[in-house]
């Protein structure tokens, strides 16, 4: 056990970050030393943490080396450290070669992952690189028993899993084959193995066999997935096991190198490393997969334990450094997540919920199409900002330097090529002068006679940067139903103090806490942290009184093991925290729950008596996060977990001297630029401040490690411990006018998008269906008074722009009859709908005495069933709209503030006139989700009303228009460029393309570009007539596809609103496949024809080869259950990139169900899920991506519905590239017969039958003869971007995967 100090020895807490290494030393007698070093400085030292220890020992004792010539350890008490070594290896893919062992048929399972593409508008799809070098497929398989559902005739051996679960051994391990394959891998020099087998988390017998073989063969690192993390979901568990095998050898080498520079390799010194969960562990137990957040976790511990003494309010941690900005929350306990994604790798392990939301001081500055843009590109630590004198670009740091908020004379001289020079103001100024000229030139061209100074330009970028960082902070709090303003901002990190006041004011937060060690708070957190021992096992039991004793027994067993492990390390004070990972049956929203302290007054179960009330915690958390609880629904225990804390004694923190003078003397003055104007602000050195000192803003506070800016109308007080409490004035009306300002244009763009995002959070929280709550298949949007789209979130491509048609239809139909308190429901294709299951709820918004709506809000959600001839309301053979369910053109679902429940129930439950049609099959979910959509709209009204209160109605409406015009400008710039390129290449500005559906229906497009005006005419005349089937696409679908294509071709973020289509005139022939008659079936148009429209547009613009052009919709079930999935394929290649395989493209990005979840919940066995090996991707200079093979074995008779395209016609290649192979649907009968299925069919299949699908690949690009000149995607230059992570990022990824 570590004491706070060790007698006359020196104790070190160190955070090795991406740019700087921070060192805090507690000297004998309690003196504290701090030091900041560059993390990489190979000309001066090989290891920054060791160098920091050496320098402080030398300065304090006069001697730093032992007789051995190594750092003397005789005076070192303990070392506690966090490091980015694992994170950097993951980001840069510099781990050890790994051989991955998987079940046969799953060789590409971790490459395909959840099949969603990382960025929905990137045509060059860059999937994260694999962590494994090679794959060994093993002929062994275990599946859940499903005794009550399985009708297969088999003699498979029954195996027992955890919690008495039963599994079937379909195929035992072929030991000799495994031995031969692993021997071949070992002989190629691979020494690390990751074994990932389906269902091994609950029944690990096969993994244990293979692990034993690997160890016998001499592999030095063998990771079994059930030991890396015993949790369900083979894909996430597989990533975790691979990360463990990939990173741990690298971490071990670093630890060996670190120790090697110390006398006796640190023997006898207590060395602890910070893990991602905020707990320390012995150096020997520091593993790769649990080290990803090692450094940032220290900061959370630091502000949690120090900030909470200054306030009872919950804290928001704001850690802004040079290369990233991290945001987290603390409300009396650490907020952990069990699964999070970093650098494309999903890690299943307890980790603090730390959200990396921006690139920190290194965020790059751009001026694009009349708008100020900050990030996401980053200058990184090398070359760094321009003022670092290494040839870097303009960044947030440069803007702060120009504004006087960074004072070079107080910064260390560690910059320039030799890292011995100060920050360079002149370089920053010269680059800002260039940018200033571009901005003023644009203003002049648009009729704006203002001339911005470089200080005004820099201040504009700072304001945009602040708003960029506020958006995810709002999402972090408001997504859980919390008020952002009801928090205290705890600011730390080297750059955080320059932005803290402005961030707090923007968020409505009145108080900011800055610890005296804020510049190195992550290091200080290492000194405060406890040693943590985690134990976890899967369960699967129902949470009930009947299982209470069994759950208690397992908690007891894990508690005893955890206590013993900590006692072995010498801890006498040990705390154990029990958790149950609980979820409602049939849902995926599991919550890790600790018991409440009180005991229920009802009959006491053994579990309740021993540990407390887990049930109450679950219900409270579920209601807080989701807005309701489910009645009469079983609760399932997914996992049982014990977190043991070996308590370290906290280093004493002494009070500083107090002074009766309330205002300290200043060191000097500095001219600083703020929103309120320019001021000569006094400068104070924090080392000279005493307890009780009070300072009014504006002011500059400087310590050795950071600069803190106190803005005008703010004040700061020094506490008894030397911490700073800043009071921030919030509220008040912003004094801007309605004239276009490029800075406010960017700020309003963020605010409008934030409103749509927060509406989505409310909808997701308060909805009840799987489609909306878990698959996140919805969109929320904000519209101007004319119904024109202003902002749309999340970005589901098939919804882009479509809701605008719906809102404008209501304006045409209802006009001035709309009243305050009315809410409209619509889904009809002729009223702007996409397909009938997508129900749109529209609310007109009135403000004060204005008689007409001042704006509109709307939310569109995919309902699981709204009636029709088949469950799910997506019949593959529908020929009329009436067969697809209930249709609404303009239904008042709320009138005068009253929910019209009786009327909507009647409409939903009454069958249409179609033969065989029924009403909705799930009325309760329909009603709950509709109410959630109404609640989401109400949130939007509230937020925009607050915006109007702050800025005024005229300003808000003006910026709605400005945002739309800015999107128009971006598209016009793109069209000018395309027109000029086309003119130079072909002598013509007319682009044409024709594509066909599998039934022969053409999609014809002629684009006539005016390169002078930046406008275009998109004429779909010649497209096929309406079809007798359901591949008719409503007009709104074509507009959505156009907006999607335009955004992809622009190549950078632009506001997605009606302005995108303003430069484009669209002609769509009536009664065609793209604008069918009122009663035409449309369900396939939404999911299939939309893809062909995109193919046609991109072909006309000569952008890239066709992607798979299909969503591969599969519906399986019977009268008691249903399952729906869409399946990935190949993406098209383009100029400079290969297509990606096994990924969703264009108008969909749906995640696929994890194989273990699929086999646990449904009577199916996934036999194969991998990339095609028959060359499905079109060849060319750049090759198209491969389609996938997916084989499903049915364990009982079911009905199979298939709605697919590209089964007849191949996805095209471009510029000489070859077409891809089309897809194929087969049924393999249990007697061995193979039967080909049509692209659109519905059949009954028997137990033992297998559905085998091959999805299309992507088209090639360029002539094959030029392929010798080709570089792969991984070799292409990629902009540096900060790596997002945390629950906010995961949520946005999930939204874009709906």
From TrEMBL:
Region (Disordered): 647-672
Ranges for domain Hydantoinase A/oxoprolinase: 237-534
MF term (GO), any: 5-oxoprolinase (ATP-hydrolyzing) activity
Residue ranges annotated for the Hydantoinase B/oxoprolinase domain, each copy included: 741-1263
UniProt record, GO biological process: glutathione metabolic process
GO cellular component: cytosol
Residue ranges of domain Hydantoinase/oxoprolinase N-terminal in the record: 12-217
Family: Belongs to the oxoprolinase family.
Protein name: 5-oxoprolinase
């Amino acid at each position: 056990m570590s004491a706070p100090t060790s007698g006359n020895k020196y104790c070190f807490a160190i955070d090795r970050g991406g740019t700087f290494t921070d060192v805090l030393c507690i000297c004998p007698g309690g003196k504290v030393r701090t030091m900041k070093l560059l993390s990489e400085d190979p000309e001066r030292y090989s290891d920054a943490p060791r160098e920091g220890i050496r320098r402080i020992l030398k300065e304090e004792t006069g001697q730093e080396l032992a007789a051995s010539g190594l750092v003397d350890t005789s005076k070192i008490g303990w070392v506690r450290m966090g490091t980015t070594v694992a994170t950097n290896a993951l980001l840069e893919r510099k781990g050890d070669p790994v051989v991955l062992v998987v079940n046969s048929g799953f060789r590409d399972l971790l490459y395909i992952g959840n099949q969603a593409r990382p960025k929905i508008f990137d045509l060059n799809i860059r999937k994260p690189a694999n962590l494994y070098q090679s794959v060994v497929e093993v002929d062994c398989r275990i599946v859940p028993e499903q005794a009550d559902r399985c009708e297969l005739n088999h003699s498979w051996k029954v195996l027992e899993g955890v919690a008495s679960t039963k599994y079937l051994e379909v195929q035992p391990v072929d030991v000799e084959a495994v031995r031969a394959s692993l021997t071949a891998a070992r002989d190629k020099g691979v020494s690390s193995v990751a074994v990932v087998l389906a269902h091994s988390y609950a029944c690990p017998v096969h993994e244990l066999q293979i692990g034993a073989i690997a160890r016998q063969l001499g592999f030095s690192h063998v990771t079994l997935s059930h030991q890396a993390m015993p949790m369900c979901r083979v894909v996430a568990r597989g990533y975790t096991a691979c990360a463990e095998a990939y990173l741990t050898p690298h971490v071990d080498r670093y630890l060996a190198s670190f120790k090697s520079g110390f006398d006796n390799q640190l023997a006898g010194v207590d060395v602890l490393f910070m893990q991602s969960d905020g707990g320390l562990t012995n150096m020997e137990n520091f593993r790769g997969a649990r080290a990803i957040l090692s450094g940032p976790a220290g900061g959370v511990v630091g502000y949690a334990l120090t900030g909470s003494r200054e306030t009872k309010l919950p804290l928001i941690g704001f850690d802004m450094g040079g290369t990233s900005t991290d945001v987290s929350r603390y409300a009396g306990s650490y907020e952990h997540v069990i699964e999070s994604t970093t650098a494309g790798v999903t890690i299943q392990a307890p980790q603090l919920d730390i959200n990396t939301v921006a690139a920190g001081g290194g965020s790059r500055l751009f001026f694009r199409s009349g708008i100020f843009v900050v990030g996401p590109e980053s200058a990184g630590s090398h070359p760094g900002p321009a003022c670092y004198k290494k040839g870097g670009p303009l960044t947030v740091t440069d803007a702060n330097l120009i504004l006087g908020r960074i004072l070079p004379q107080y910064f260390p001289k560690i910059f320039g090529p030799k890292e011995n020079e100060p920050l360079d103001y002149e370089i920053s100024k010269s680059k800002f002068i260039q940018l200033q000229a571009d901005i003023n030139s644009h203003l002049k061209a648009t009729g704006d006679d203002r001339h911005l100074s470089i200080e005004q330009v820099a201040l504009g970028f700072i304001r945009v940067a602040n708003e960029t960082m506020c958006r995810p902070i709002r999402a972090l709090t408001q997504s859980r139903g919390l008020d952002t303003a009801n928090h205290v901002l705890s600011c730390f990190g080297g750059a955080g103090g320059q932005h803290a006041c402005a961030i707090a004011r923007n968020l409505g937060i009145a108080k900011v806490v800055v610890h005296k060690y804020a510049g190195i708070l992550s290091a200080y957190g290492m000194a405060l942290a406890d040693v943590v021992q985690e134990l976890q096992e899967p369960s699967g039991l129902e949470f009930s009184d009947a299982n209470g004793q069994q759950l208690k027994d397992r908690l007891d067993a894990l508690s005893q093991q955890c206590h013993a492990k900590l006692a072995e390390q010498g801890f006498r004070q040990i705390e154990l925290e029990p958790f149950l990972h609980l979820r409602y049956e049939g849902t995926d929203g599991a919550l890790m729950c600790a018991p409440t302290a009180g005991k229920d007054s009802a009959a006491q179960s053994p579990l309740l008596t021993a540990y407390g009330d887990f049930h109450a915690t679950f219900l409270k958390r579920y209601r807080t996060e989701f807005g309701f609880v489910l009645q009469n629904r079983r609760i399932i225990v997914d996992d049982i977990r014990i977190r043991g804390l070996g308590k370290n004694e906290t280093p004493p923190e002494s009070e500083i001297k107090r002074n009766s003078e309330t205002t300290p003397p200043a060191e000097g003055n500095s001219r600083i630029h703020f929103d309120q104007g320019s001021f000569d602000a006094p400068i104070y050195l924090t080392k000279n401040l005493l307890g009780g000192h009070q300072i009014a803003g504006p002011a500059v506070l400087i310590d050795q490690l950071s600069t803190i800016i106190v803005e005008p109308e703010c004040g700061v007080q020094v506490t008894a411990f030397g911490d700073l409490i800043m009071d921030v004035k919030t509220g008040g009306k912003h004094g801007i006018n309605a004239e276009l300002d490029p800075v406010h244009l960017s700020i309003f763009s963020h605010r409008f998008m934030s409103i749509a995002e927060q509406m989505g959070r409310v909808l997701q929280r308060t909805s009840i269906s799987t489609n909306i709550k878990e698959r996140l298949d919805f969109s929320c949007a904000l519209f101007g008074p004319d119904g024109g789209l202003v902002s749309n979130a999340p970005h589901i491509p098939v919804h882009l722009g479509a809701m605008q048609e719906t809102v404008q239809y209501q304006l045409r139909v209802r006009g001035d009859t709309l009243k305050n308190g009315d809410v409209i429901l619509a889904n009809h294709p002729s009223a702007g709908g996409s397909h009938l299951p997508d129900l749109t709820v529209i609310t007109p918004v009135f403000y004060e005495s204005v008689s007409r709506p001042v704006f509109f809000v709307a939310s569109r959600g995919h309902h699981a069933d709204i009636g029709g001839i088949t469950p799910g309301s997506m019949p593959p053979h529908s020929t009329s709209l009436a067969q697809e369910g209930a249709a609404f053109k303009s239904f008042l679902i709320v009138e005068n503030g009253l929910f019209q429940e009786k009327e909507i129930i009647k409409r939903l439950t009454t069958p249409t006139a179609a033969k065989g049609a029924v009403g909705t099959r799930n009325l309760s979910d329909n009603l709950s989700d509709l109410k959630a959509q109404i609640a989401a709209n109400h949130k939007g009204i509230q937020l925009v009303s607050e915006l109007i209160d702050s800025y005024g109605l005229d300003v808000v409406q003006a910026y709605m228009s400005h945002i739309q015009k800015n999107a128009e400008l971006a598209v016009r710039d793109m069209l000018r460029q395309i027109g000029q390129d086309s003119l130079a290449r072909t002598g013509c500005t007319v682009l044409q393309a024709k594509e066909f559906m599998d039934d022969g229906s053409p999609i014809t497009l002629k684009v006539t570009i005016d390169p002078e005006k930046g406008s275009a005419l998109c004429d779909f005349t010649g497209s096929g007539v309406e079809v007798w089937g359901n591949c008719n696409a409503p007009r709104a679908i074509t507009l959505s596809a156009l907006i999607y294509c335009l955004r992809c071709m622009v190549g950078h973020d632009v506001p997605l609103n009606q302005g995108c289509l303003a430069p484009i005139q669209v002609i769509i022939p009536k009664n065609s496949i793209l604008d069918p008659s009122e009663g035409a079936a449309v369900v396939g148009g939404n999911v299939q024809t939309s893809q062909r429209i995109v193919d046609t547009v991109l072909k006309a613009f000569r952008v890239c080869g066709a992607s798979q052009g299909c969503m591969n919709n599969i519906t399986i079930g019977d009268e008691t259950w249903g399952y729906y999935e869409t399946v990935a394929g190949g993406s098209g290649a383009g100029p400079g990139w290969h297509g990606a395989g096994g990924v969703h493209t264009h108008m969909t990005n749906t995640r696929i169900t994890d194989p273990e979840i699929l086999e646990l919940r449904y009577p199916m066995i996934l036999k194969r899920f991998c990339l095609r090996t028959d060359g499905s991707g079109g060849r060319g200079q750049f090759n198209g991506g491969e389609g996938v093979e997916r084989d499903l074995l049915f364990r009982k008779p079911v009905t199979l519905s298939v709605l697919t395209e590209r089964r007849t016609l191949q996805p095209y290649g471009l510029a000489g590239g070859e077409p891809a192979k089309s897809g194929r649907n087969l049924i393999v009968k249990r007697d061995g017969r193979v039967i080909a299925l049509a692209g659109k069919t519905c059949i009954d299949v028997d137990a033992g039958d297998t559905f085998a699908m091959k999805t299309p690949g992507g088209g090639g690009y360029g002539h094959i003869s030029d392929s010798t000149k080709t570089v792969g995607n991984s070799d292409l230059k990629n902009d540096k971007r900060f790596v997002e992570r945390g629950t906010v990022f995961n949520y946005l990824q999930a939204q874009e995967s709906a």
